[in-house]
Amino acid sequence: MKYVQKIVGESVYLSPVHTDDAETYIRWLNDFRVTDGLGQSTTTLSLREEHEWLERAQSSNGNHDFAIVRLSDDKLLGNGSLFNLRAPSMHAETGLFIGEAENRGKGYGTQALRLLVSYGFFYLNLHNIMLKVFSFNEAAIGMYQKIGFREIGRRRQSYFLNGKRYDDVMMDILREEFPINYIKNAQER
User: Fold this and answer.
1) CA 39 to CA 25: how far, in whole Å?
2) Residue 189 has pLDDT above 70, yes or no
């Protein structure tokens, strides 16, 4: 069994990452259609580097890194993380991506983010989860707002891409603004 249904939603689940996926991730993370929105288009990753990252992500590195997997056929769709966890303030950052263009716009990212936020609030006892998005990424901003994230600030013209400058948009959500636990395999208490 390659993937483990750690956090289960309606049509996706979050699984610990697997080093066997290094080639898939390296293809995605060297694709401008993926990396432009991640702020990593000026980075070239090697298979060795990605394999090492996946090995670190499998260990207790303080982050919670997951493969996003389609429930119906166990197909790897992308990656999502909770990172920079800080105690005692109980805050963290989150981010995710869906690798293949054919799987974007189908709600997988929304479901995966709801699962990450549910896990952060209902299992890790976080109080605040923040993310960063670039101002050109209106679809992502709309999805984050749909979940309940609010804009908390901008770093103006801080991202350069294809000859233009864009703002970093910081958004966050508080525990009391997210009342529903979307994890389907969570035990009722």
Assistant:
1) 16
2) no
Residue 37's alpha-carbon distances to 11, 33, 171, in angstroms, are 24, 8, 15
Residue entry with tokens 């993380």: 81
Give the total number of structural domains in the chain: 1
Residue type, 57: A
* Cα gap 85→63, rounded to integer Å: 7
What CATH number is associated with residue 62?
A: 3.40.630.30
Q: Which residue has the tokens 């990212």?
A: 109
Q: CB of 12 within 8 A of CB of 183?
A: no
Q: Give the structural domain span for 75.
A: 7-177
Measured in residues, the chain has a length of 189
State the pTM of this model. Answer: 0.93
Asked if the model's pLDDT at residue 39 lies above 60, the reply is: yes
